[in-house]
């Protein structure tokens, strides 16, 4: 009886208001989204707008936007040989880094999908560099290439090479930075590629086996085309990561020698927090943003469709 | 609990899926709603459950309007097509979770869980996780979860469609047994007419937003209200032939025109004109010698079912199927004499324009079934 | 397959694994050697001991750095789990006005590099008085569009029957979230938590700018501090600190391996 009353009450209460009772009420969505929106507004949208704003101003010594200069900061950086050198160096680095990471990742994934017992141990080992922090990894690599105690220097010396300090040579420094970055990125790339390799249906390989294809040919003609969406996804992700790379430079080369490794993210940091030139740094930040937004857009656009290029 | 749907309509945006459905479901009834996919049967069930809003009309439980009540206040239980078991809970926890938000003591909940698991013979497996169970076992757990609520109404949405044929038969029997033992009102949605025929006290056939027919399984089989029901209920499908009756109303030809030299005697009088004649496959009997009431068809193929034989024939471009309750042999390509039924009960006549049943043979006293 | 061939494959795999992990293996080895042996190039020295670790713990603030990192990465992980889960739930299960536009706004944040926002963010945090403070290290990272998308994707995998079942039980939104959605997606949740913790344990640029004292300096920046101080030439000890920093992440990865393998690709290609 108690229940009866309650049921009747609810019914009369909501007469003419059929939808709200069972369907969605829109207000709670606000409370679910508000905390995230607040953080994003304060620490993503607002700073982005401020960076654009700052890029139109010259800054005084205290880092305040002092004088409106229009697009002059942009004209200045694109006339500045240092910035152009940084941009070119970044591009070379990013492409090398992404390509080498993916090629090595594919090789590792192929090795780790061989049908052997205990292959899981090797999979774990190959993924082992994934969690290494940029700071710790940089110190390990710095140790490898250190001119006085580095094992690479000892090896080069033993081989009779006179220039044993790679870090004082522009090309050498670039190579060290690329290698260290690839090493850090390889674990993640390997895991992604491994699961892509494993998702290829085994029937394809069985058909190829019957046709007498070699393992190498199978990898090249079956696996790689089948996993091309993953390869593409990874390539873009590595490109984006490459442009943002900072810690290795700060710890290994400090942008040297002779600005050979003064890549974009590092240059922004230096212009902003070492030289306190916020206007220039802001303009450079916008350049970085445009590049990364473009790459991310490409990633969203194409990986959503999952195009097979085969 | 009795359930009454009064002029229920449902539209998603501008797409109407159900219009003006009115049905009364008796307490303790095993009520089946059947129809092809997209016929709105699941939507109707979801509206009864309170999971979908009602666009127009009212729903009454025991003559109490529940149209605007949320699901949990309707005192019903539901069994889902994909079981809706929580993968991270074991069998007993899953059943108990169905009692969440119910005002029961812990002991009583435990008791209910045991009772329900015993009913479905799953008590031994109460520690298992769903993924360690077969599909049939998962569905038993899902049944137990519904039964544990002791709700007077249980709704089932295609509960057997994910099971293989053998398990389906087994679970059909199981659900029928549980209904007999517990006596709840059971509303059961399926697209499978065999399930509908074998389980339901009454069947509601839905198609094209509308009720096609409501009746007992034999009502639907013997007196389909229209061509849709005629073809939907029964396997293989009922044969449907266009016929034309002469002006005197005593003879007919198969086809769109009347031919005196190719006419058959009508078993009862009919007004002149065109009709669709429906004959169940088992009423189209092969005979060895041709007579004035036989048609001669060419055998296209045979299906031996062991107990039955299905003979697929061609008559003047018209596909016919005959079902013989024995092992029957005839060469493919041979001519076969099929006897047209002489009893008015075995004739199903439909309007050529709208497919509605035509009530004929007044002297045979056939009941009237219309929309 | 012949035994020789199998053996050759194991040899190949082992060589590749050793080469790949060589910097870590060398680091571990060097961390056990006295610095004077390292300086002399005497890598095959047998004077191994844990002295470098002892020295690192006693003479450097490495423990303080580690605690700071644990607090920072831990708080961020908890913050992101809560905030991203809430937002992901809204996008997966609720209908509201401007849903598309808001979703797009979240998407856009993934296109904007944090590196380009550090100047205004630095000024904001400074204005709030959060410089050299856990608040400044964590609050800006309490949500991420990536996390929202990853968890939304996981929530969308929940069968509609289960969602209906929750409605039929009359669960409130938070009850549904807590009792069905979160446990159902626990594998993705754990992956996300591990990923977030690792990412922020390894964070470098932001703490480099916003911390000035050892009280709040996390371990990554602490490494730079140690390396640039006079300890620099003490390679044995520097290696020991690097290994100490690496250890928690390596352990986390070993624990979380199966989750990463299962979920990273799905999260990656589906966005």
From TrEMBL, chain A:
Compartment(s) of residence: Cell membrane
Major localization listed first in the record, in broad terms: membrane
PANTHER family in alphabetical order: ABC TRANSPORTER PERMEASE PROTEIN (PTHR30193), INNER MEMBRANE ABC TRANSPORTER PERMEASE PROTEIN YCJO (PTHR30193:SF37)
Gene Ontology annotations of biological process type: transmembrane transport
Domain ABC transmembrane type-1: 87-299
InterPro entries, sorted: ABC_transporter_permease, MetI-like, MetI-like_sf
TM region(s), chain numbering: 29-49, 91-112, 124-144, 175-197, 222-240
Membrane topology: Multi-pass membrane protein
Origin: domain of life: Bacteria
Biological source species: Lacticaseibacillus chiayiensis
Family to which this protein belongs: Belongs to the binding-protein-dependent transport system permease family.
Gene Ontology annotations for the cellular component aspect, listed alphabetically: plasma membrane
Protein name as annotated: Glycerol-3-phosphate ABC transporter permease
Keywords for the protein's UniProt record, in alphabetical order: Cell membrane, Membrane, Transmembrane, Transmembrane helix, Transport
Pfam families: BPD_transp_1
Automatic annotation (TrEMBL), chain B:
Keywords in alphabetical order: ATP-binding, Cell membrane, Membrane, Nucleotide-binding, Translocase, Transport
InterPro entries in UniProt: AAA+_ATPase, ABC_transporter-like_ATP-bd, ABC_transporter-like_CS, ABC_transpr_MalK/UgpC-like, Mo/tungstate-bd_C_term_dom, NA-bd_OB-fold, P-loop_NTPase, Transp-assoc_OB_typ2
GO molecular function, one term: ATP hydrolysis activity
Pfam family of the protein (one): ABC_tran
UniProt-listed SUPFAM superfamilies: MOP-like (SSF50331), P-loop containing nucleoside triphosphate hydrolases (SSF52540)
Keyword Transport set for record: yes
The keyword Aminoacyl-tRNA synthetase belongs to this UniProt entry's keyword annotation: no
Transmembrane regions: none
Entries under SMART domains matching the protein: AAA (SM00382)
Origin: domain of life: Bacteria
Residue intervals of the ABC transporter domain: 3-233
Record-linked PROSITE patterns: ABC_TRANSPORTER_1, ABC_TRANSPORTER_2
Recorded GO CC terms: ATP-binding cassette (ABC) transporter complex, substrate-binding subunit-containing
Protein name, UniProt field: ABC transporter ATP-binding protein
Organism this protein belongs to: Lacticaseibacillus chiayiensis
Automatic annotation (TrEMBL), chain C:
PROSITE patterns in alphabetical order: ABC_TM1
Keyword Transferase: no
Listed transmembrane segments: 12-32, 62-90, 102-122, 134-155, 176-198, 232-255
Compartments, as annotated in UniProt: Cell membrane
Organism: Lacticaseibacillus chiayiensis
Keywords on record: Cell membrane, Membrane, Transmembrane, Transmembrane helix, Transport
Statement: the UniProt record of this protein carries the keyword Transmembrane: yes
Membrane topology: Multi-pass membrane protein
CDD domains, alphabetized: TM_PBP2 (cd06261)
PANTHER family noted in UniProt: ABC TRANSPORTER PERMEASE PROTEIN MG189-RELATED-RELATED, SN-GLYCEROL-3-PHOSPHATE TRANSPORT SYSTEM PERMEASE PROTEIN UGPE
Gene3D superfamilies: MetI-like
Residue span(s) of domain ABC transmembrane type-1: 66-256
One Pfam match: BPD_transp_1
Protein name: Carbohydrate ABC transporter permease
Cellular component, GO, one term: plasma membrane
UniProt record similarity statement: Belongs to the binding-protein-dependent transport system permease family.
Primary localisation category: membrane
GO process annotations (BP): transmembrane transport
